[in-house]
Structure formats: C-alpha cells, structure tokens
Amino acid sequence: MGPIRKALFERAQSEPCSIRLSGAGEESEVSESNNVVVITTTAPSRESAETLARSLVEQRIAACVQMAPIRSVYRWKGAIETSEETALWIKTRSALQERVIRSISGQHEYEVPEILALPAVGGLEAYVQWIVDETGDPATV
Q1: Is the predicted pLDDT of residue 29 greater than 80, yes or no?
Q2: pLDDT tens, position by position, 104-129
Q3: How far is Cα 18 from Cα 20, in angstroms, rounded to an integer?
Q4: Strands (DSSP E) found in 14-133
Q5: 133, 123, 139: which is closest to 19 by C-alpha?
Q6: In CATH, which of 3.30.70.120, 3.40.350.10, 3.40.50.2000, 3.30.70.100 is domain 3-134?
Q7: How far apart are CA 45 and CA 40, in angstroms?
Q8: Average pLDDT of 46-59?
C-alpha cells in the first residue's frame, strides 16, 4: 500500500463516518448507526451469486443485493486470467459490515474472494432509511 492510500486508510479507520443525505429539498446528517456501505464481491456463476444474495437478505444483514454478469481480467498465482463472473453489490448498514464479510467468506467458492466495503457518502434519505429498516438490529442479528 502506497503512503497516500495508507494515510487515507488510517484516517478512515480513526474518524467516525458521517454521510449527508438528500431528502425532499433538504440535507440531513445520519447517525453513525444508520451509515450504509456497499459491499462488492463476485461469484463464479449466476446460480452461486443468487444463492449468496438470498442468504444475505434472508439473514437480514443486507437489504438488497444487485447482480450483473461481468468479465474479469486479473493476475492469479503468476498468470493473467480471464473469467466470466457475476458481480454483486450488497447494501447494508456499516454496523453489519463484518457479519456480511464473514457470511460471504463462509459461503464463497473462491480461495480468495473479492470482498470490498465502500462507504456511501451520500444518497436519498428515504433509500438509506429503507436499508436501515430492512436490515436487522446489529445487536441481535
């Protein structure tokens, strides 16, 4: 990790995340417990992506999982590979992020699956509230 990425990563880890939301003509801050993240991963097939997506939503650790076919080019064990995959975009609360990551890791077919959590830095207030409403309470899920 380069020095700039390292500094940004350390800053993100040490500062509480606060996002600004757009509602009906007004902005508001959301409490840390309502912060949302989008977690990305890939699956080797549409079927395995669907199984993973349903599992995350059924556990109430994700409100929504979107899927789309993609073609990936990557380096793996010294060789350049190309694969047809299914990309997943998982919407959840930041407080549930680690549970989502553990669930993906436990179900995934890949030796080292892509799992990246991206903070949502803004969005429609009603949509963010919907994510909060459709995911379980982090203390009980």
Answers
A1: no
A2: 999 999 999 999 999 999 899 999 99
A3: 7
A4: 20-22, 27-29, 36-43, 64-76, 79-93, 115-119, 122-124
A5: 123
A6: 3.30.70.120
A7: 15
A8: 98
How far apart CA 66 and CA 87 sit, in angstroms, is 8
pLDDT at 138 over 60: yes
For the chain, the first-to-last Cα distance in angstroms comes to 34
- Cβ(91)–Cβ(65) below 8 Å: yes
CA pair distance 61, 39, nearest whole angstrom = 11
| pTM score of the predicted model | 0.78
Cα gap 69→85, rounded to integer Å: 6
